[in-house]
From TrEMBL:
Predominant location category: cytoplasm
Any GO BP annotation: pyrimidine nucleotide biosynthetic process
Cofactor: Mg(2+)
Protein name: UMP-CMP kinase
Species of origin: Kingdonia uniflora
Enzyme Commission number(s): 2.7.4.14
Cofactor-binding details, from the entry: Binds 1 Mg(2+) ion per monomer.
Higher taxonomy: Eukaryota, Viridiplantae, Streptophyta, Embryophyta, Tracheophyta
């Protein structure tokens, strides 16, 4: 493990945001395949931390079960460690920042500002259908928790998207279409000719 991240100016971060089930993970996997980014899902890192038996495990499990947002201190540390451990300088940060506290803490601690925000826009009914069909044993894929996740997304996460919208950094994608069609739009943003 390196002692610190390379000069933050050389690090490229894209935040991948969107409601629960909007397809963040699915699209990130495709971006990784085509454009050489490292995919860091904050939710996956938290679930791994929980399973590793860390002292925060029970707290993380309870927060996820209730659809609530884990304190930034925990999540930023996991993201920072994952960035240090990778040998890459290009990261997709998926499902983070989820609220203003997350956003401010990440910038303060890492001094990294995102290149842009990929925002997957999808109707709630469609997201609900996808989550209920996923069947990967996630403790938060039940209708009660899904409703809580939608509420937290609307109340806490959408304002972060709006914040970056005011900075002109949001690339909004219609994520209600089949995954390959969504990626047709996404890949344009990562192609060298773009911008
Ligand atoms: N699918 C995907 N794309 C499709 C398409 N275009 N058409 C049809 N089906 C499509 O996709 C979900 C399902 O839909 C899959 O079965 C897929 O095949 C299908 P996926 O790509 O997994 O969507 P994604 O947006 O990644 O959904 P996910 O459930 O992971 O989103 P969440 O934001 O809810 O989950 P996350 O893991 O990010 O967070 C979980 C919890 O962790 C949070 O609720 C919170 O409690 C906690 N958390 C924090 O506290 N802090 C953080 O920073 C991050 C998480
Ligand atoms: Mg995901």
């Amino acid at each position: 493990v390196k002692e610190s991240l390379p000069n933050e100016k050389t690090i490229k971060v894209v935040f991948v945001l969107g409601g629960p089930g909007s397809g963040k993970g699915t699209q990130c996997a495709k971006i990784v395949e085509h454009f050489g980014f490292t995919h860091l899902s904050a939710g996956d890192l938290l679930r791994a931390e929980q399973k590793s038996g860390s002292e925060n495990g029970t707290m993380i499990q309870n927060m996820i079960k209730e659809g609530n947002i884990v304190p930034s201190e925990v999540t930023v540390k996991l993201l920072q460690r994952a960035m240090l451990e990778s040998n890459n300088d290009k990261f997709l940060i998926d499902g983070f920042p989820r609220n203003e506290e997350n956003r401010a803490a990440f910038e303060r601690v890492t001094r990294i500002t995102p290149e842009f925000i990929l925002f997957f826009d999808c109707a709630e009914k469609e997201m609900e259908r996808r989550l209920l069909n996923r069947n990967q044993g996630r403790e938060d894929d039940n209708i009660e928790t899904i409703r809580k996740r939608f509420n937290v997304f609307m109340e806490s996460s959408l304002p972060v998207v709006e914040y970056y919208g005011k900075e002109g950094k949001v690339q909004k994608i219609d994520a209600g279409k089949p995954a390959d069609e969504v990626f047709d739009t996404v890949k344009i943003l990562f192609s060298p000719a773009h911008g």
